[in-house]
Amino acid sequence: MILFMHPAHKLFTKTFVVPAPLSRMSSFTSSLQSLFSCRYLLMGLVYTCVFHAFWLVSSEFETVTATVSWYLPAGIRLAAFLVCPYRAWPALVIAEKLVFFALFSPGAALDESAFMSGSYGWLIVHLVLSPGAVMVCVWLFRKYNRRPFFDNVNSVMSFLLSGVTLSALLGLIFLGRRAIENSEFRDIFWPVWFDFILGDFVGILVLTPIIIILLQSKLTTIRSKPLLLLTLLWVTTLFSVILSFRSGLDFTYQLKYIAILPALYLSYRFGLHGGALATLLIGLTAFVASLNSGGSPLEHQFYIVAMSITVLILGAAVEQSQQMTDQLLAANQEMKEKNRLLQEAINDIQALSNQLVATQEAERKRLSRDLHDDFGHRIVDLQLQLGLVASRMPAQNNSLSTITFKLDELYSAMKQSIGRLRPAGIDTLPLEHVLRNSDTLKSMQRSGIHCQLHSQGTPPSLSDEVRINIYRIIQEALSNIAKHAGATAVEIDITYAEEAIHIEVTDNGIGLTQTQPKPSSLGLISMRERARFIGAQLTIDSGQQQGTRVIIDLPLTV
């Protein structure tokens, strides 16, 4: 069924086109809806709950005397912005700030006036500058580093640089605002800023790698038994140290140094996963050590930073090395497969070449037999008939003699053609006898090339294929000498031994030059194909102005 629209209908529809401002408003509304979808709001809710929970844990840690100063929410924040899509960032920021106001506003659950200045500078720092610094640093990291993160040394180094830069920027933003508003704080600004950087950076090192690994991997390596056993053993050791400390035995100072070898082993053995897990366990070890000893917090901070950087770089290097090994193995496997296919193609071509050589010789043999048995007998019969006619018609002897002479020439030409197709005696006589009576050798001698043929040993029994192909190789070598070498002497040496037949064709010509047949010429290709077909080795030895030597070695066991 075909529907037709009246032109008036078109005019009617044109009058209801949505104006451009309304279209842009609709697009803006759709963008807002996509930014604050249920999925992104759920991400923001989970993030802010975890963020503030770790904030409270970090605050409790700070109440412990001489404990390590680490700000765990910094690691949660960086990990969340690294793994969440860009569209989820507004939801993360808004959720974090709303929960912050809900917790710390006057009269709220955690009424902390120290965290709520209320000044315009405070609002700008917390609502604009600090989220902006986080998003810029993370955006730059994600721009130049593809997922999965931390799987190579460059990615780890970029992460470390981004962590230090972000900690320094946030320290400048938060503490700079206080220094501007409080002149007394300016005297202690730099030491506090340094402590701020260390605290944030420690939190980033302890939590961000393990969170990233857990979220972006399939956890197959995390669930491996050796890794779980080592982790269980490490945690058990920490509990044992705590119990021993309460019993009066203090091993907390030695604990940090004993943990170095297991941390390095985790990174070396399990690569990226082991390194990320080692950073978390190093943080727990430093916390246990600081909880039971009176060491300086700065000492524990530098211990965490130094060990975490070491195990992360080692784990990334091991992971990168494993990836390169896997890629190399895959490339080798692909190359083996291509070599196999290439070898199959070569075998097919060689089989086809062998079949062509065999078919060519069979066809030549058939043609030579047909010429000899059919045309040869017919010419002989004509010669006999002409002889009878000549005896009965003496007056026509001159004409008959001319015809007889032409028939003799025809018969000689046919015998030469038969010889080129299938040399006489090739199936019964020794090879040297066939060569001596060949037209090729006789033609060279008529051209002024002195030919010598020597043979040693007893000729073995050879198949027809081997005999004819050896003959064809020598024939092609002699033909090349006659055409290109400019030689005056040729020597053919045939040696029959028990294990092999050794044949050398040597000339005193100009040798192979750029004007001579190239290794890819049809004649040389034919020689090599025939040699390979019968299992012989063909060698062509030549030097400029030193002649050429063609060597054929045929093992008799082939």
Q: State the major sheet.
A: 5 strands, mixed
Order of helices and strands: HHHHHHHHHHHHHHHEHEEHEE
Mean pLDDT: 81
Helix content: 55-70%
Taking strands numbered 1, 2, ... along the chain, how are they ordered across the largest sheet?
Answer: 1-2-3-5-4
| Morphology | rod-shaped
Alpha-carbon distance between the two ends = 80 Å
| Number of beta strands | 5
Multimeric organization: single chain
In percent, how much strand structure appears in the residues? 5-15%
Structural class: alpha+beta
> Helical region count?
17
Return residue spans where pLDDT drops below 50 for at least 5 consecutive residues: 1-18, 63-68
Provide the gyration radius in Å. Answer: 48 Å
Describe this structure in words.
The chain starts with 6 loop residues before the first helix and ends with a strand. The longest helix has 96 residues. Helix 3 runs antiparallel to helix 4 and helix 7 packs antiparallel against helix 12. Strand 2 and strand 3 form a beta hairpin. Helices cover 70% and strands 7% of the residues. Among the domains are: 184 residues; 130 residues, 2-Layer Sandwich (Heat Shock Protein 90). The N terminus is likely disordered. The protein is of the alpha+beta class. It has a 5-stranded mixed sheet.
